Amino acid sequence: MGYYRGYILIRLKMVGKEWDVVDKLKGLSSKEEGEDWKVTYATAIYGGWDVIVECSFSDLNELDKIVTYCRTDSDLSQAIEETTTLMGTKNDYES
Predict the structure, then answer these.
(1) What is the spatial distance between Cα 93 and Cα 56, in angstroms, rounded to a whole number?
(2) pTM (two decimals)
(3) What confidence tens digit (pLDDT) does each residue in 26-77 have?
(4) How far apart are CA 34 and CA 44, in angstroms?
(5) Rg of the chain over CA atoms, in angstroms?
(6) Which fold has domain 4-87?
């Protein structure tokens, strides 16, 4: 089975929380039966966004779970101001 690849760009509310957000998201993966998604990479970046997160998933609903987690987790929601999500068009990524 192939996987889609997605990217979540994160803008923070305040400078200095980049590595806290990266540490919280790095290695995050599905825990529920029937789901198959994971965060494959996360790092602080320069420019208009503060953090980029790469993830792989087999179903669009799984991408929604990752983005929703970023926006609603109690620690992350205090640090994150805005997200933008991008996704590849083909499910040919080997996870």
Answers:
(1) 8
(2) 0.91
(3) 999 998 898 899 999 999 999 999 999 999 999 999 999 999 999 999 999 9
(4) 31
(5) 13
(6) Alpha-Beta Plaits (3.30.70)
